[in-house]
Amino acid sequence: METHERLEKALRKYGFDTCCAKMASLKDACEKKWLDVEKVLEDLNRVVEEINEEERIIIESQFL
After folding, report:
1. How far apart are alpha carbons 53 and 49 in whole angstroms?
2. Domain boundaries in the chain?
3. Which of these, 18, 20, 22, 50, has the minimum number of CB atoms within 10 Å of its CB?
4. Dihedral pair phi/psi, residue 63, rounded to 5°
């Protein structure tokens, strides 16, 4: 699976190893690193929402 570079950067910020699908689940990864899964999820969702909004703007601008 190809990951957007900004999402990959956000995952690495938390120290998650995303290579070769080593991360079993976000919850497990957060627990191993003593991270608040809700806060991590909020941050990652924010990044995804920003990426989606940028993609939407790009697609819409192609039809103008």
Report:
1. 6
2. 5-61
3. 20
4. -100, 5
